[in-house]
Amino acid sequence: MKKSKLTENAAKNHEELFPNHESKLAKTDPEFIALFDNWALDEVIRQSKLDTKTRVLTVLASTIALQTLGEYKVMVGAALKVGLTPIEIKEVLYQSVPYVGIAKVFDFLHATNEVLETNGVSLPLAGQSTTTPATRFEKGVAAQRAIFGGAIDQMRQQAPQDQMHLQDFLAANCFGDYYTRSGLELKTRELLTFAMLISLGGCEPQVRAHVSGNLKVGNDRARLIDATTQLLPFIGYPRTLNALRAIDEVAPFVNPTYAAIPRTDH
After folding, report:
1. Cα-flanking dihedrals φ and ψ of residue 150, to 5°?
2. Is 54:84 a contact under the CB 8 Å cutoff?
3. The dihedral of CA 233, 235, 236, 237: what is its sign?
């Protein structure tokens, strides 16, 4: 039987992320590994205009949401190889807590610490918080407005009184405690939130809201499609198509000559 081989690009991209790694699956499942790696590490990456670090950050965010701890640990190692800092890696993890929940993130915290310490990183890392108990709400609302504009004030005004504490939590905790942290810029945090939401599935209203948020902070339609494309090998086609639908609903494709082209069902 003819042995399947990786393309030159797939081999190069694999070596960048996982230098000197010998895959066990390449020995037990060589045909599958070749077809998958030639697609995911060549064809898919060739579609990307994201820089390598941003691409790896989105994969880290996605694997947390997907609860794929083994793949996440491998990608933390890859993140260090491509030059992401321990602080950047930890900030992705912290950013995931309000979206994924601590019950799902807990094991990832310990796994991250194990990988970092194995690579000679001394813990704890320098703190990145920029708020205090007195300022977290105010700064959180400011972050919400920076991402969602005046719609955030309307949402707070229309919230039922018995749910207002949750709006306050969103402002002070989700945005005040996390979005205001240093270590990652706001534009990157919002892209990572989008990556988490499309990976979780079942979050279409939130995906649409964060498509709008991404557009406001500078991540345009092309960048969102690029990020979605890069996550396709990890999240599969159904969630990818759902993400594309959300993008199309909020920021439809506009032909330079004609009008917006409506999306058809798949």
Report:
1. -65, -15
2. no
3. negative
What is the distance between the alpha carbons of residues 12 and 15, in angstroms, rounded to a whole number?
Answer: 5
Q: What pLDDT is stored for residue 187 in this prediction?
A: 97
State the pLDDT at residue 22.
86
> In the prediction, which pLDDT does 264 show?
60
Residues 6+ apart with CB under 8 A from 199: 61, 62, 63, 65, 66, 231, 234, 235, 239
In which residue ranges of the chain is pLDDT below 70?
1-4, 257-266
Q: Which two tokens stand for residue 240?
A: 């990818």
Task: Give the residues across from 260 on adjacent strands.
Answer: 254
Nearest by Cα to 15 from 89, 78, 76: 78
- The answer to whether residues 193 and 64 touch, using CB atoms and an 8 Å cutoff, is no
Phi, psi values for residue 9, rounded to 5°: -65, -40
Residue 265 confidence (pLDDT)? 58
Q: Give helix 52-66 / helix 186-200 axis angle, nearest 10°.
A: 40
